[in-house]
Amino acid sequence: MIRILPVLVCLVLCPITADAGLLEYVKKPDDSFKWNLKNKTVAASGTSYQIEMVSQTWEGIKWDHILMVYVPEGVKPGESMMLFNDGGKPDPLRGIMGFEIAKRAQIPVAFLYGIPNQPLFDGKKEDALIAETFVRFLKTEDEDWPLLFPMTKSLVRGMDVLQALSKEEWKNDLKTFVVSGASKRGWTSWLTGAADPRVKAIAPLVIDTLNFGKQIPHQFKSFGKPSDMVKDYTQRGLIPIPAGKAAEKLWQMVDPWMYRESLKMPKMIINGANDPYWSLDALNLYWDDLQGDKWVLYVPNAGHGLEQIYGEGKKDRNRALSTLALFARQQVLNKPMPKLSWKHEDADGQMRLTATTDVVLKACRLWVADAPTRDFRKQTWTEAPAKIDGKSATGLVAKPEKDWRAFYMECEYEDDGKPYYLSTQIRMDEAKK
């Protein structure tokens, strides 16, 4: 039996009150902020810039970053660009990825590293570090402690640097940004969108956990316990959500769902269908609450790294990268994305999914998986046909004869000869008992 704690009930039922602490922290002056253009490299493929930056001093710790900027050959910087935040340090593989996104999108792309600065506090990194700062907030109620706040401020300072670079290097007035990142950097992308009006669009990757008050009990329902991937939070007593006003305050401060009134900009959500962190249908707990233009892509047979595994053993991230690049390009260049709507319903003992779009489809397919329980993390997704009729597509899936079945539709488009993909929400059904 799932125990619903009073604070969790409040998060689900109480009126929305987005916390003001994030905005206050981001706006707080910090004399340690500085930046310096260290290197400029011109090559046949384009120009790259390496910037050294200090975003802030947080809890007595100076946050140092490297900011890389990639401008492909023939691309002229304009009023907007993409900013991707990363937890590591620059290396050849990350450099290739940065230039690849920039070339695919034909826009300037910046990669901000060191989000967060780590390791800290006796070698803690990633979720262990975030959990440590959450525990320290619960003990002190000092609103500077939650690590997502300085992570967000780093991106805000990064935008400041990019605007200054644009004026000095390109004699250009850079005004807006498309912000992206994966996992906890996707989490930071949501919060940066809520904190800074310069963010014109966001593309959060593999952070399928908005609306914490519903997600946590739903994960118990799906897996029988929290995912082992969030053990850093369970081991510190943060999941299930502890009782008390401080815990209620914490989740109001860091849950992007609480800021949804400030998140009306275009959103491209990209998830792996086999991500071990999240319940398969986690998106359904917050999708309808998101305002403004929004799209989702599920990458089949791909986990938290969005690397799709094919039957013959081949692996790649083409689905995620092509869609991310197309979205960033359209937002930076003020070009429209396809409109896509869908409807799940039952028909003649089958499950029917109809998708309608306003752009000619290159292809359309269903992805289907079966599982003995609601836990689909290790299941294989198989492709099934969908029938295209003009700008709509319909797919039929038989209801499960036993256990569970899940499916969604993927619409494939083409832009300038290059494919990209958009998905519908996932439907999960259990066989009648």
Number of helices: 10
For this structure, the CATH topology of the largest domain is: Rossmann fold
- The ordered H/E elements are HHEEEEHEHHEHEHHHEEEEHEEEEEEEEE
Average pLDDT rating: 94
Q: What proportion of the residues form beta strands (DSSP E)?
A: 25-35%
Distance between the termini: 21 Å
What is the number of independent domains?
2
Low-pLDDT regions: 1-17
Number of strands: 20
Sheet with the most strands, sense and barrel status: 9 strands, mixed
Q: Outline, from the CA principal axes? A: globular
The CATH superfamily of the largest domain appears as: Alpha/Beta hydrolase fold, catalytic domain
- Name the quaternary structure: single chain
Radius of gyration: 22 Å
CATH class value of the largest domain: Alpha Beta
Helical content (DSSP H or I, runs of 4+): 25-40%
User: Structural class, please?
Assistant: alpha+beta
Q: Strand arrangement, largest sheet? A: 1-2-3-5-4-6-7-8-9
Please identify, by name, the CATH architecture of the largest domain: 3-Layer(aba) Sandwich
